Amino acid sequence: MVGELEFEKPVTELRKKISELKEFTIGSDVDLSSEIEKLEARLEKLENEIYTNIKPWDRVQIARHPSRPTTLDYIEHIFTNFFECHGDRYYGDDDAIVSGIAKFKGLPVTVIGHQRGKDTKENIRRNFGMPHPEGYRKALRLMKQADKFNRPIICFIDTKGAYPGKAAEERGQSEAIAKNLFEMAGLSVPVICIVIGEGGSGGALALGVGNYIHMLENSTYSVISPEGAAALLWKDAGLAKKAAETMKITAPDLKELGVVDEIIPEVKGGAHKDIPQQAGYIEEILATSLKTLSAMTGEELIHHRYEKFKRIGQVSFTNELLGVK
What we know:
This protein is α/β, with parallel strands linked by helices. It has helices at residues 9-26, 33-51, 56-63, 71-78, 120-125, 133-148, 166-170, 173-185, 201-205, 226-234, 240-247, 251-257, 275-294, 298-311, 314-322, and strands at 80-84, 97-104, 107-114, 153-159, 191-200, 212-216, 220-222, 262-264.
């Protein structure tokens, strides 16, 4: 099966058996309903065992699933009247970032997000979701426009990292990311960031300075990929699984560290299993977050953002000093 994850194989095989038995009963006079019921009960138990004990490396695999919903998938299900804007007004457009104006429950908002492809052709067009400098400058242009017209900003984070190629460096990749960090910190409108897949390095941070940072349950957020960390630490990229467990890059770990505010639950097996339902979960937390932030003035929003990032890491550092585990 395309996109099948290793830890899901027992579930997939059992589902296949149930499906075969159901097809067999349709074309014959044999009643296998009791056997099917037993297998379905066994399937439910197996799913609960597997999906409630997902390891960090398994979450990495889910975050990278080729069918995992992208920014455009969520825009389609959560927002209305989306109008995409292109170009940075300096160099060109970048398809690795989509941005535009939309309505969320009747409220005008600016939506910005990384965009990867779901097949080879689209991935080439989207540069596998790794933006060039013009992508970040386009995002900043839309953010400043939102600030001018008092529109909340919603960012979807899903990238392995900013594109590290020669052309990107020549056009000021690091400066573009740094400027986004600086400018986002001072925006006087609500900024909500949601990690929907992989949140990798500065490429993710360039859209990640928000009043609230939420993460899907099976997303990751880190300064480097597990493979990259393993290659640096142990000179062996094959130890990526060990690195994933050590780095604390999953939503539960980051929630405990205070890096993210809320964990958005995923449908059983991952967001790709039911995109409309997953979009509903995101819509719910967006509504709650916007209601809270909309009550604040521009100065209060900037202070709220400042205090949020100042607090990151304080709890774990204090506990370390006190010897609390």
